Amino acid sequence: MRRTSWPCRVVAELQAFIPGLYPRSEELVQATRDLDRGRTTQEAVDSQVERDRAAFVSGQQEAGLDLLADGMLSWQDHFRALVESADGLETGALTRFLDTNTFYRAPKASTAVPKLGAPLDERYVFPLDGPRLVTLPSPFALSHGTGVTPKTMAEGVLKPAIEALDAELVVLAEPFLAREEGAGLDGLAEALESLGGGPRVAVWFTFGDARRLLEQGAADLPVEGIGVDFYGTHLTDVPEDFPKLLLAGVVDARSSLLEEPRELAAFAQRLGERAERIALVPNGDLQYVSERIAREKLARLGNARTATTEAAA
Amino acid sequence: MSDIKFLTHEIGSLAKPPWLTKSALGRELDESDIEHARTWGEKVGVEGHRELVESLQRGGADLEEIARWSSRYCVRLQESAGVEVIWDGEQLRSEMYAWAIEHAKGFEPRGTVRSFDNKYYSKSAAVGPVGLAAPYHNDEFSFLQSVAKHQLKIPVTGAYTLAVWSYDEHHTPKEGRLGAGYGRSQEIEARRELTLDTARNLIRPNLEALIDLGATWIQIDEPGASTEEDELDLFVESFNVSVEDLDCMFSTHLCFSDYDLFFPAIEGMGGCRQYCVGFANYDRTELGTSGADRPGYEVISKFRDLPYDPILGLGVLDIHTDFIEPSELVRDRILYAVEVFGDPARIQVCPDCGLRTRSWDVAYEKLQAMVEGTRLAEEALNHAHAST
What we know:
heterodimer; A: about 325 residues; alpha/beta; CATH 3.20.20.210; 9 helices; B: about 400 residues; six-stranded parallel sheet; globular
């Protein structure tokens, strides 16, 4: 059995992993383009997805990451798989994802109480050998703009999806809350209450300054871990004696600049003065850089984890 | 009173035909590709298309020549559909971002990134001062002048979009951002330097070269304009820096955004004579000319109220679906816009955006419906005027 954490003198528990949407290789890009234009088959695309996934898993193993992810290579965005598996949800208008040049089909509710019709199949959650994580949208993100409450979305869609998973950690990606002026945590907190009892859950506040959310008590949310983008958030905004696993977004998924592992390691040690349990992660989905750059960032994340433990030993 | 007439025009890209894309990838053509060239050549009246068909059958044709054929086909496709102001739908360019960056100094490629679903774009990083390697639309414009029967409009990707779609390794600190509260103001300052550098040293000299060749209408494409709400002033400034005092009609194209965000910032963009804006993507498909019937067009009154009275290029075709808008639906969208504007002379008609994600069959039918719907709107208004 692989270790799922490493001892570290400054950081009591240190992990590293890659939640979220991982970029497709140039080969998979071409295959999916060809599929759309009727120049190849779904089988050929599936084969390339398998090759991409195998390369990603191998990259994570070589980097010594603690939880494996499948990269969500068949997901078109964070919501589509759930929307298509749920009764009462539909794909809506093409919508810009935050301030990126990437778009998603915004979920649209056709009933007041959407329900998951069937668990996510292997196309969306591929079986992996070893401790793994799965990324799903947070209840707030899934309910965003639908008129359905996060709690209803959590109970009807996310809970049955999570209960069907075999995963050490479910990371709930939350891209909106850190960027919405005036948005509070109450709706999210209430929704998360209903997700207990299954695998451990973390909320990953991606791509934004989490200061306001931390001040509002994000550390008290009923989850195992909290993810923070440290390219948007100051280190001192993390409360001292942070009580949860801190998913520290230290790899900038929106920059082509490659991180220096020693800088990441030094930062992790400083962070260790505030949180005993840390997981080094990107600050959002790595799909915002090309696969070639993401592969290098992944390796450097692993190097940073190793450098942190070595420096502290 | 003279008859009311709405000008119809294209917005941007069209799909590249299989005989061009396969040739570019070095793949063998099959009979369906040859048939595509034959049937479309006949359908839209491409003079000498048999020469292309024979060339494709023989194999080994020059890729640039095939691309010029594709350009001819797209010109005729739009002219044949009845569109009055046309272009070749990007047949001679790689893509709106990549083509500009390939001809610029100061950028390096960083791979392919997804835009949505199975759609992607190549993304580069600014790595040094920006400059123009060589005017990059001149050959295209000269060729189209020799081919087109209808008026030409040349789309040029704008400075802000090039900047915001690029990584910036030149102005972004390589270290020290992590956990330091690297603030939004620092990000904006970095973007400002890159954007204005691009406007002055890449876009403007390229526009000057086009105008020297005789271009009279240039559309500055800015699909990224509303990406950052707090950078809209920068978008406006970069537009003004790009076009100020140049002798040409300049329009801009905005799409898939929360258009409310543009106000009041674009009140200062007086050099823009027309806003071509995608609305159909947000609209209902049922007929009707009331505000309740046309929710996708709710924001147009803000364009009406701009102080310099620009024309609105009214997007009436949703380019993300194969749904063929009935001409009556196009008509009703136009009639609603005229009702809001109160001045038909300030309305022109176009698709929401480029149609490159649609097949030629779908694009052609949509454009025909747009033209037919425009004629229906003209008839309705002229009939109403005649009756009063």
